[in-house]
Every structure is written in C-alpha cells, then in structure tokens.
Amino acid sequence: MSGFVTNEGKQEYINSYHEAMSYLPQPVESKMLNTDFGKVKLYKFQKEETPDKTPLLLLHGKGSATPMWEANLNDFLKHRPVYTIDLIGEPGLSIETKRIKTYMDQAIWLKQVLEQLPEEEINLLGLSFGGWSAANLAIKHPEKIQTLILVEPVYLENY
C-alpha cells in the first residue's frame, strides 16, 4: 500500500504540498471523505458567479495530486464550481487503508466519493490515469455523471 518510508519524508512532502497549494485559489471547502479503500482529500473551489452550475470534478494523473491543476483551475472556475481530489494510492493527502486490486475497486471508491457530493450530477474530467479512472467509473457507475471529459487517458485498450 502507498505510504511514506519515514516521518521526515512525510513532513517534507506535506510542506511542499502546502506550498504548491498556495498557488491555487483558496478552496471554499476542504475535507476528508471516507471510502472503503481509505480517506480521500477533497477540495471545492468556487467563484461567487457560478454556485448554481453543475460542478466539475478533476481527476489527476499518476504521480501527482491537486496542486497539478494550478495552470488550469482559474479558467475552469470562470464557468463552474470545481472539485478536486487526491487519488487514493497516488501522492497527495488521501490515505490508503485497503489495497485497490481491481478495476471494480477503483470504481467503488470513486463512486463513494461522488455519493458524498451534494449535487445530483457532476461533470467529470480525467487526465492520463485520471482519464482511465473517470472512464472506468463512467462504465461501471454512470449514475451521477453528466459529462465525461478524457485528456490523454491511459489503459483504455483494456476495455
């Protein structure tokens, strides 16, 4: 399972993560969501002009986390609220408590995240591994997904 080797390494990462987050707009919400596979760090960003728009949920690629959206986030916020999460098993502040072994496991914990969002529908955008994760979720549990946007998704030949 994912995790840090030393407490010093963990603290260094957390400090760097928070520094990178300082370049993003201030989130209106930041919390941990419980899933069967661990705790998921969720942020909500929103402009005053767009509270009634269907939000966009961003899924990052491998080896990254929420701060990777710094270059795009302000443009997305012009049009709608934005949620970001740190994917379980990837760098970030989410905490893996049970190994994700299958495609279904990946879809289950993401479905559990969507179920905890108050909106009835969500627009889903995934980049690279996040694109695969978004497609996998849409195939297995499309209930809350209004639109699906995939940017350079990986592993889709397996479908």
Uncertain runs: none
Radius of gyration: 15 Å
- The total number of structural domains is 1
Helix content: 25-40%
Q: What is the ordering of alpha helices and beta strands?
A: HEEEHEEHEHE
Q: Under the CATH scheme, which class?
A: Alpha Beta
Q: Strand content of the residues, in percent?
A: 15-25%
Distance between the termini: 26 Å
Number of strands: 7
Can you tell me the overall shape?
globular
Known CATH architecture: 3-Layer(aba) Sandwich
CATH overall fold name: Rossmann fold
Individual helix count: 4
Biggest sheet layout: 7 strands, mixed
Structural class: alpha/beta
Oligomer: single chain
Mean pLDDT over all positions: 95
What does this structure look like?
The protein is α/β, with parallel strands linked by helices and 159 residues long. The chain has one domain (7-158): Rossmann fold (3-Layer(aba) Sandwich), CATH 3.40.50. It has four helices and seven strands, in the order H-E-E-E-H-E-E-H-E-H-E. Strand 6, helix 4 and strand 7 (145-151) form a beta-alpha-beta unit. Helix 3 (103-115) crosses helix 4. The two termini are 26 Å apart.
Quick rundown:
This protein is of the alpha/beta class and 159 residues long.
Any chance you could write out the topology, listing elements then pairs?
Layout: H1 7-21, E1 29-35, E2 38-45, E3 56-59, H2 70-77, E4 82-85, E5 95-96, H3 103-115, E6 122-127, H4 129-140, E7 145-151
Helix pairs in contact: 3-4
